[in-house]
Write a structure and sequence with these properties.
Elements lengths: L1 H5 L2 H30 L8 E6 L5 E15 H6 L10 E8 L3 H4 L3 E5 L3 E5 L4 E6 L4 E11 L2 E2 L6 H47 L4 H32 L2 E6 L5 E5 L3 E5 L6 H17 L2 E2 L4 E2 L2 H32 L4 H13 L4 H24 L14 H25 L3 H9 L4 H28 L6 H4 L26 H11 L3 H36 L1 H4 L1
Length: 550
């Protein structure tokens, strides 16, 4: 036994067991997140149940069964709930009944013993709306300008026809408001700043002011034309509506301008549900958020996360590589260099929120404020770069991750044999040429390793971003069609902060829970995609310079 221990075999098996356990736990965690998140988009059947209330009154409930749990009887009795039977555990069911603009809360717990009957009628519908969440009930009529248009045609066909028309109008309104009118407002603001700049510089002569006035007049004409078109579209989209009978028997009229789509899950087969599921997943990835970020999509957060990581990589790579090259190739190895290396290693252990405070004080207030005073005096007192934005967020995270790049690059430089440097110098190359054409290319896989580690950490950081640029809901993306196209001064959305906001700041906890799981899964997938891209580049560089390394 002693010989077996001395051979080191037990420690190899212990290490393998630890790695295996870690992989199993990671796989289990990802599986749980995927199950809770992706299951949210599957069209759930709608139940209609007869339910006995505490006063023995029988009521009808309509909604989706979202979960169930066994609760001790004593807990319910202590809360003043009357429970039939004498079992110690009581099953209760969570029902998403929707219609919260009409009946209040859209999630309710009902006691299993009080459920008298359950039915799944095929004509029950779920209506996804732009506001107030889902709506459940029975379709009754489709109205056009207040007139019932379902007397001569099937109700479902008429609804789909009018809903498709309303969606087209809504898409046209969105394009006009966000793209065309948004571009006009941006140009008008630029003209205002140009005029203010001319006034500050004393160059606001009659000719310059007339030119700006002519441009403003032309833009104003375009704006009025779009405004007239918008008024007509809003009048056109408001003419269609649908009436729905809800669980208490009331008939509620819903404008189709507020409806995204209508489904009959109880009448759908597996193929139809799979198609609806894929559409829901795509909408979650490509749409903007709604209802305090608990509904809709998360495309702005995906875009902001990826763009911030790309900018951070652009900033951190040259700084980290230059610092590593100086420390390894040029700096005299002595106490000062050792102290610098210790300081760099210690920087990796500084809490991220400290970097956020530093970024807010130095980048935003000091650097950004001075940039505004020097280059944007016409915008004062409104800040341009003297306010949190994606540029300062990227620089803050670059500062946070630069120790990782420095250490990885130094390790790569140290692994290059000195014979390669000496051979290059003996052939007449200077030290700079040797470094640029031989050493750095061979060390590029190590640089990519440092960048991979930096991306993996930066993409999931939230605390510093809350101080230097991330917001709950950004009105515009940092990248658009208005010159200069990339707006580094704008605030942005981030997947990590989105998870925090939806999970801890949402007024509707039950509706937010599946969105948190889905967003967390998407954040993991984005980080994996970014890392796979960097790893593929590193492997290509490693194969390219393998012959030189040998």
């Amino acid at each position: 036994m002693r010989g077996w221990f001395n051979s080191g075999a037990p420690w190899i098996w212990l290490n393998a067991a630890a790695v295996s356990a870690s992989l199993i736990m990671v796989a289990g965690l990802l599986g749980l997140i995927a199950l809770r998140g992706l299951g949210h988009f599957w069209p759930t059947d709608i139940v209609e149940m007869d339910y006995r209330k505490a006063d023995d009154q029988i009521v009808r409930l309509i909604g989706e069964i979202r979960g169930h749990e066994d609760v001790p009887r004593e807990r319910l009795v202590a809360a003043g709930v009357s429970v039939p039977g004498d079992s110690e555990l009581v099953r209760r069911v969570q029902l998403k009944s929707g219609n919260r603009d009409v009946v209040g809360l859209d999630f309710n717990w009902v006691l299993g013993p009080d459920i008298i009957a359950e039915r799944y009628p095929e004509d029950l519908v779920v209506i996804e709306r732009r506001e107030w969440g889902n709506f459940y009930g029975y379709l009754r009529e489709v109205h056009e300008n207040g007139i019932n248009v379902t007397d001569t045609a099937p109700l479902w066909d008429v609804l789909n026809e009018h809903l498709g028309r309303a969606r087209k109008i809504a898409d046209e309104i969105r394009v006009i408001e966000r793209d065309e009118i948004g571009a006009i407002n941006y140009k008008l603001e630029r003209l205002r700043l140009d005029q203010r700049r001319l006034e500050l510089e004393g160059k606001a002569d009659t000719e310059a002011l007339a030119r700006i006035a002519a441009q403003e007049a032309a833009l104003q004409l375009q704006y009025e034309s779009h405004q007239k078109r918008l008024i007509a579209l809003y009048q056109d989209i408001q003419r269609d509506s649908v009436t729905v009978e809800i669980q208490d028997g009331r008939v509620v009229e819903l404008p189709l301008s507020k409806v995204i789509h209508v489904l009959r899950p109880n009448a759908m087969g597996v193929g139809d549900k799979l198609l609806a599921y894929m559409k829901n997943v795509w909408a979650f990835i490509s749409d903007d958020p709604r209802e305090a970020n608990t509904e809709g999509g998360i495309f702005p957060a995906i875009f902001g996360t990826v763009l911030m990581v790309i900018l951070m990589s652009i900033f951190v790579t040259p700084f980290g590589v230059i610092a590593a090259v100086y420390l390894r190739e040029y700096a005299k190895q002595g106490p000062i260099t050792r102290i610098i290396r210790i300081a760099v290693n210690n920087l990796a252990g500084v809490p991220s929120i400290v970097y956020g405070v530093f970024g807010l004080g130095f980048f935003v207030y000091f650097l950004g404020g001075n940039i505004d005073q020097l280059f944007y005096p016409e915008a004062q007192p409104a800040p341009i770069f003297g306010t949190p934005g994606i540029l300062w967020a990227s620089l803050t995270l670059a500062l946070l991750t630069v120790p990782v790049v420095i250490v990885a690059t130094e390790e790569g430089l140290a692994r290059i044999p000195s014979a390669i440097r000496e051979g290059s110098l003996s052939l007449g190359a200077t030290k700079a040429e040797t470094l640029w054409r031989t050493v750095l290319p061979m060390a590029s896989p190590a640089m990519m390793t440092g960048l991979i580690l930096a991306v993996a950490r930066a993409a999931g950081e939230v605390a510093p971003l809350m101080l230097v640029g991330v917001v709950k809901l950004a009105p515009t993306l940092p990248l658009d069609g208005n010159a200069p196209f990339l707006h580094l001064d704008r605030k942005f959305m981030h997947l990590g902060f989105h998870i925090y906001d939806v999970g801890f700041q949402s007024p509707n906890v039950e509706a937010a829970r599946p969105v948190v799981y889905a967003t967390a899964l998407l954040l993991v997938l984005v980080i994996v995609a970014l890392n796979i891209t960097a790893i593929s580049i590193r492997n290509h560089l490693r194969e390219k310079y393998r012959a030189l390394d040998n």
